[in-house]
Specification:
A: alpha+beta; Alpha-D-Glucose-1,6-Bisphosphate, Chain A, domain 4; 7 strands; globular; B: 7 strands
Chain lengths: 147, 150
Amino acid sequence: MSKPEFVYVTYIKTTPDKLWEALTLPEMTKHYWFGAHLESDWKAGSSWKIVFPDGRVADSGEILECDPPRRIVIKWRNEWSPEHHAEGYSRCTMQIEQADGAVKLTVMHVIDRETSKFIEAVSGGWPKILSNLKSLLETGTIALQAK
Amino acid sequence: MRIPEFVYTTYIRTTPDKLWHALTDADFTRKYWMDCTLTSDWKAGSRMTMERGGEIKNDCVILESDPPRRLSYSWVSIFDEEMKKEKPSRVTYVIEPRGEMVRLVVTHEGFADDSKTLQSISTGWPMVLSSLKSILETGKPLIIDPAKDA
C-alpha cells in the first residue's frame, strides 16, 4: 500500500534566488497564498507557520532542512481544521533546480498514514497556490483571487 | 494500491476558447510543446499525430471532442520500441472557467502497472503545461530542453 502523497512540478521563468524569495519572504507569500503568509526565520530547527489575514494560525510546524536557494523541508501540521489537525504532522519538501531557460520547482507533500484527508485537501490547494506563484513571478500579478 | 495515472491541475489567466485553440492549433502547439506539432481535425474518431523534426512521436485517436470544454484522445508513444508495445493510454482535458481564470485538469490514465510511458509522460506534462500557461499569460513559452532534465 502506497502512502498518501502529493507531488507537483512546475517550471517558472525566473531565477532560483527570486523563487527562493517568493517562497520565504512573508510579503511575497501573501500575494499568492490567498492573503495568508508564511512566517519563519528559515533555519533548520526553527518554528514555521502560515498565518491567515485575520491573524489565526492556519498551519504550523518546524523547518527540518533549509538550503537556500535549493531545498526546504517542513514538518507541517494543520491547525484550523480539527479533522486535519488530528492526522498529525506531514512533511513538505520544496526543491528548486535550474532547468535550461526556466527554474523547476518540485513540491512533495507526504504523511505517514494509510489514508489522509489532509493530503487530499492540499492536493486541491497546491495547484492554485503554485499557479498563482508562477503567474506572480512571470507577470507580476496573480491568477486566482481569494474567494 | 495507487492507480497508475498522471493528473495535473493548472489555473491559467485566459478564456476557454483561447485555451482550446492553444491545445488544438498545429502552429500554436509547436510554439510551446517542446517543438512538437499536434495535427488533427479534432473530430471524434480522427487521427491526431504529435510530430517533432519530421518524425511522429506519439500516435493518437480523438475519442471525445467538445470544444471548448472537454477533449480526450488515445496515446501511443511510437518513438520507443518498448512503449510502442504498451496498450494505448488515454489523455483527457477538462476546461472550466473560474472567474477571470480557466482551470485545466489533464488526466493521463489507462497504463499498465509497470508502464514506461507513464514515467515518460510524468516528466513531460509539467514542462508542456508550464510552457502552455506561460505562453497564454505572457506571450512567451518556456525554453526547456527535455534531454537536459534527467
